[in-house]
């Protein structure tokens, strides 16, 4: 088995949406069926300006593969193996898009920043140029080998925005893979213990300057 990282064009994400959502549901350990609730939102995100997605796919027989495309290699590498990856099983997916006024997530974060006492100039400085890392998921059996980091690096390579922001569920002592990854990549606290409208879970908003 070998893992390759690929960019997913909008049409590819649409074609492979069910598979990508399965990675998400398995990674988050959500009940089966959650895919159906999220599909419309993921499809709507694809149409946002500047949307970008990357995936990790698994190849049983990588004969003829270019090793520079393997996860962990230079994330800027666009080299692809001689094998067809279009139907290689997906084991990881990540996507995001530039934040913009009018997006629900941005409105929620602005509210949180205002409540935390951030001055308006500081809020507009961050909000004027950031990439939202919206989703990042690795199949449980493929976690813990650096794939999550490789996907983040590939997704953020060459972005023009000044910052990257994300939200992640709060967890006791930051003791999970997502938190370890974000801290290792230099993400710092923007807001802690934030409740998005309609979600009973507490979230942290984390961010860092780009480039990574
Ligand atoms: C969070 C998530 C995306 C991270 O992806 P991942 O591939 O498991 O994690 P990483 O890329 O950080 O892998 C690094 C881990 O692999 C280990 N590792 C082994 N070989 C490695 C290599 N060659 N390079 C880097 N790390 C390697 C590291 O020691 C590290 O271990 P640690 O997590 O115990 O600190 C993934 O675990 C996941 O999908 N979790 C569930 C869903 C989720 O929480 N998503 C984020 C919601 S905000």
Automatic annotation (TrEMBL):
It holds the Pfam family Acetyltransf_7. Residues 41-212 form the N-acetyltransferase domain. Keywords: Transferase. SUPFAM superfamilies: Acyl-CoA N-acyltransferases (Nat) (SSF55729). GO terms for molecular function: acyltransferase activity, transferring groups other than amino-acyl groups. InterPro entries: Acyl_CoA_acyltransferase, GNAT_dom. The keyword Transferase applies. This is Acetyltransferase. It comes from Mycobacterium gastri.
């Amino acid at each position: 088995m070998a893992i390759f990282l690929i960019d997913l064009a909008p049409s590819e994400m649409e074609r492979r949406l069910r598979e990508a959502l399965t990675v998400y549901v398995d990674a988050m350990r959500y009940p089966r069926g959650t895919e159906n609730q999220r599909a419309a939102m993921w499809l709507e995100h694809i149409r946002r300006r500047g949307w970008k997605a990357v995936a990790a796919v698994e190849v049983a027989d990588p004969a003829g593969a270019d090793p520079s495309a393997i996860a962990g290699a230079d994330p800027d590498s666009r080299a692809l193996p001689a094998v067809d990856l279009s139907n290689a099983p997906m084991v990881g997916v990540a996507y995001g898009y530039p934040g913009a006024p009018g997006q629900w997530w941005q409105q929620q974060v602005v509210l949180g920043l205002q409540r935390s006492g951030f001055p308006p100039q500081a809020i507009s400085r961050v909000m004027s140029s950031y990439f939202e890392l919206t989703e990042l998921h690795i199949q449980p059996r493929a976690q813990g080998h650096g794939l999550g980091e490789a996907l983040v690096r590939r997704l953020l390579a060459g972005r023009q925005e000044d910052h990257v922001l994300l939200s992640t569920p709060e967890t006791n002592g930051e003791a999970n893979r997502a938190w370890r990854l974000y801290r290792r990549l230099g993400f710092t606290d923007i807001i802690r213990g934030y409740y998005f409208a309609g979600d009973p879970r507490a979230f942290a908003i984390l961010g860092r300057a780009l480039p990574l």
